[in-house]
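Hi F.,

I've been meaning to write this up properly since the lab meeting, where we talked about keeping a consistent format for the predictions we share between groups. The idea is simple: the sequence comes first, exactly as it goes in, then the structure tokens exactly as they come out, then a line or two of notes. No screenshots and no reformatting. I'm using this chain as the first example so we have something concrete to point to.
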Amino acid sequence: MNKIYKVIWSKVKNQYVVVSELAHSNGKQSRTSRNSIRSRIAALVVCGAIAAFSAFGALPTSSAYAAGAEATAGQYIAIGGANSSDGYYDRNTRTYYKYYTGSDNKPHKYIFTQTKQGNFWVREGYTIDIVNNPRFGGDDAGNPDKEIIINTYKGEGADSNGLVQSYQNVQESMNINTLNGDKLFSTGTAMYGGAVNTSSTQVTTGEEYIINEGKTAVKSNNIGQYFHAATYNEKTGLYSYKGKVVSNENLYVISGQVGVFTTTANGNEVYTGDVYGRNNEILMTGVKENGDYVSYWGAEVVDPNATIGSMTVSTLQGKFDEVDSSIEKIHKDDIKQIQVASATNGGTIGLQTNGEFNEDGTAKGGANVPGTITITSEGGTGGDDVRIKFANEKGSFTVDAGSKVVANNGAGGTDLESISVNGQTFNVVGGAIAGQIDSEGNVKIQQGNKAPVTIGKVSDWNVKSGQINGSTLTLTTENAYDGNPKTGTVTIEGVASTNYVDGKDALNVK
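Output, unedited:
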């Protein structure tokens, strides 16, 4: 029966002590559980607490956490770059194997395991699953040399003695990026053990470390600027940097030196994020039975029978801190305000997110929601009706808005002189209507101050003289206006003159 050891804070002794718990080996790992875990594994980000892994018991304050040690191959579950010729051949199982010495100073059997992504020596009783998933890339540090992640699975009766293992809070990328540039992670707790993608398990100043979420590559030529020794306090059993106590999960051992990474070269701020290797591994830290810190390249150990009964409060709190962080990140993307701005023939309407918050909780204003709408008025000239155009980078559409009508004032500023419809002007007649007949008989009318308009012509004929000849009367007429003709005649037939009447009257019998 195996034991798992944890370092916890003792309120009674007022110091850190190492305690043990049983890690049962009975029971088979279900395929459902394994598949579920495989589907969940993405970019694993480690931020958890420190566990121990050999003997147990209370440590004297003077010796606890006093030094750093290097993890050896025998403390790893899986080691890459394997060559079958380096081991022995078992004719019964038809497998190659070799032995590595664990932290318990005992030999442990490793099985030669072939995968499509490379060959590995794997501790007997464990299996591995290789997935392609780069943990960093596209930033200043470039892409990893290997893009694989090793997942390890503990089988029934697996030999876990002498392994380096530690409880870790695990953040799994949800592949969700917020508008304000934050990434969302799910969080869980798991046991982690050693697994490396190459044949080297070294954690030395000669290796390359990726920090600041892939933005900074720490190499042998600048590691002295980014990795700094931490100061150990024998009374408290804690490490500090620049006078500030450093959480255990942010301590690493490189070339036997316990220290911290800083966010900038020779900086004062301790880096609290994930530390990756050039070959896509994650750097973790455990504690040996003698109190020495050990850093190693880690992978999740899937063991359904493992317990976490001795997990420290700080480890559990780390999970809730990540949940709180995700809630805050999501709230940053809530809409703070609708932004309206004017422009030529229109304007824009956009949405701004909350972004960061002031100490009083007031949103400062962050990224704008993509797809700001530009509104433009078109048409209204050359006889075309007005159209309203709505557009952003994805496309546009227009809405008919009818005609553009403009009323134009006259010189006095109070009279309606003309109306423009879609750029075409139509005069509007206004004012009192007057008329006149000129000397030539032309009839003209006028409204307001507009020019007179001739609507026709009249004549005024007067009889100047007349002459009767028998029964025919001829009248001479003259037009009162200066029109053409000026004079004229009118002939009337069948007219009886007085002489004619008198003559007829003489014939009457008297």
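Notes:
The chain has four domains: 2-330, 337-427, 429-458, 461-506.
The CA atoms of residues 9 and 15 lie 6 Å apart.

If this format works for you, I'll send the rest the same way.

G.
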